[in-house]
Amino acid sequence: MEKCALVTGSRHRVGAAIARHLADAGWRVFAHVRRGEDDVPEGCERVVADLEAPDCAARLFDQIGDVQVGLLVNNASLFEPDDLGTPDVDAFDRQMRVNARAPMLLTSAFAARHVGGGDALIVNISDAKLAAPNPDYLSYTLSKGALSTLTETSARALAHEGIRVNAVAPAVMLPSGPMSNEDFAEVHDFNPLRRGVGVDDLLAALDSLIANPVLTGQTLLLDAGQRFMALDRDVAFLKDEE
């Protein structure tokens, strides 16, 4: 039986790596992008939707058609700076729509299309930041907290249908936010294991979730022990604090 997956946020960075990895492993991959002119990894099929729109899930699955999707990876994410001193209401709303509401809508649509009897899997890409939260990127952190709650509640709701729901929560894997490549290199391995978390680590975690049919409602935390350090600031700002 053909293995089919939908990966959101597949234009570049981690999403493109996930889509490419699944395609190389023999999956038929529907790679979501926001605009029709956006590229997707070779071997993947482009599907287009604005995840801020309330009909985003319907739009994506309409493009997929009658194909039975057995794997949904909610990877797309907005990452914008704010904190309690400078809250940004519009940024909060954008990040909640993309990082939490869209995965909820896609989870609902995925479940509605699922044909019982076969294993199906949803993987939400969360953030290790939740394990030891700090005040930076407040709206983003709150949106990922909502995604974490969605993982647990939907796993409970969908288990009887044979749908597993899990999450992978990596620490910073690529330069992000205000980080330069030099700053990233300096702080990437700032953790007890002295080993930076890489995209390959996330792909290995995804493979393990696919392979193990009894895992549901779990979050695989990929942080090399960084949560033990209880940082006062986001890792992106560590160099500024020196």
TrEMBL record:
> Pfam families per the record?
adh_short (PF00106)
Q: InterPro entries, from UniProt? A: NAD(P)-bd_dom_sf, SDR_fam
Q: What is this protein called?
A: SDR family NAD(P)-dependent oxidoreductase
User: Which PANTHER family does this entry report, sorted A to Z?
Assistant: OXIDOREDUCTASE, SHORT-CHAIN DEHYDROGENASE/REDUCTASE FAMILY (AFU_ORTHOLOGUE AFUA_5G02870) (PTHR43639), SHORT-CHAIN DEHYDROGENASE_REDUCTASE FAMILY PROTEIN (PTHR43639:SF1)
Keywords on this record? Oxidoreductase
**Protein family according to the UniProt entry:** Belongs to the short-chain dehydrogenases/reductases (SDR) family.
For this protein, the record's SUPFAM superfamilies field holds: NAD(P)-binding Rossmann-fold domains
Q: What organism is this sequence from? A: Sphingomicrobium sediminis
Task: Give the Gene Ontology MF terms in alphabetical order.
Answer: oxidoreductase activity
